[in-house]
Amino acid sequence: MSRRDPRRAVVDRREGTHRGGLGRLTGRGLPRTRQHTLTIAIDRVACDGRGLCAELLPEIVVLDDWGYPIVKPGVVPGELVAQARQAVAFCPVLAFKLRPSPVADGPTPA
Questions:
Q1: Cα–Cα distance measured from residue 58 to residue 71, given in angstroms and rounded to the nearest whole number
Q2: Which residues contact 84 (CB under 8 A, 6 or more apart)?
Q3: Burial of 84 per CB tally in 10 Å (0-12, 13-18, 19+)
Q4: Higher-confidence residue: 88 or 22?
């Protein structure tokens, strides 16, 4: 019987970070040199329109006539990040995702 080495790195696919041995975060996820904001992405093929994301995050997600989510464009505000992560975790088909988008260093074009 083989035992797994606890020091072996494990990838947490939902968070996009690597865990080093014994569960330590190694910081290989998002680069720490830039500040990141989060945007919402929906896998339209996987989504089956249950509407749980709209119940958990009504400030950003509304449902169309058939129950499929429509996401307001832009980034997730800082005060709603916890609710957005909860919506991602509770999506029954894993169609609701948070994606990092780097903050531009200079002014945004008008």
A1: 10
A2: 38, 40, 57, 60, 76, 98
A3: buried
A4: 88
Mean pLDDT of all residues in 77-84: 94
Cα 13 from chain centroid? 10
**Domain coordinates of the chain in residue numbers?**
31-102
| % residues pLDDT > 70 (the chain) | 59
- Alpha carbon of residue 61 to chain centroid: 14
pTM: predicted TM-score of the whole model, two decimal places: 0.60
Residue 13 and residue 22 in contact, taking contact as beta carbons nearer than 8 Å: no
pLDDT level of residue 31 (50, 70, 90 thresholds) = very low
Task: Please provide the CATH number assigned to the domain covering 31-102.
Answer: 3.30.70.20
Q: How far apart are CA 37 and CA 22, in angstroms?
A: 29
CB atoms < 10 A from the CB of 66, how many?
A: 6
Terminal CA-CA length for the chain = 63
